[in-house]
From TrEMBL:
<keyword id="KW-1133">Transmembrane helix</keyword>
<keyword id="KW-0602">Photosynthesis</keyword>
<dbReference type="Pfam" id="PF01701">
    <property type="entry name" value="PSI_PsaJ"/>
</dbReference>
<protein>
    <recommendedName>
        <fullName>Photosystem I reaction center subunit IX</fullName>
    </recommendedName>
</protein>
<dbReference type="InterPro" id="IPR002615">
    <property type="entry name" value="PSI_PsaJ"/>
</dbReference>
<keyword id="KW-0812">Transmembrane</keyword>
<dbReference type="GO" id="GO:0015979">
    <property type="term" value="P:photosynthesis"/>
</dbReference>
<dbReference type="GO" id="GO:0009522">
    <property type="term" value="C:photosystem I"/>
</dbReference>
<dbReference type="InterPro" id="IPR036062">
    <property type="entry name" value="PSI_PsaJ_sf"/>
</dbReference>
<comment type="similarity">
    <text>Belongs to the PsaJ family.</text>
</comment>
<keyword id="KW-0472">Membrane</keyword>
<comment type="function">
    <text>May help in the organization of the PsaE and PsaF subunits.</text>
</comment>
<keyword id="KW-0603">Photosystem I</keyword>
<keyword id="KW-0150">Chloroplast</keyword>
<keyword id="KW-0934">Plastid</keyword>
Length: 34
């Protein structure tokens, strides 16, 4: 089926995007949680 592949790609892209944002803006992700 297609669903596991799509979810894997989606979460992989989302994780990569979060890592890139965290790399470019180190304080952007840590600030709102505290």
């Amino acid at each position: 089926s297609v669903a596991p592949v799509l979810s894997t790609l989606w979460f992989g892209a989302l994780a990569g995007l979060l890592i890139e944002i965290n790399r470019l803006f180190p304080d952007a992700l840590s600030f709102p949680f505290f």
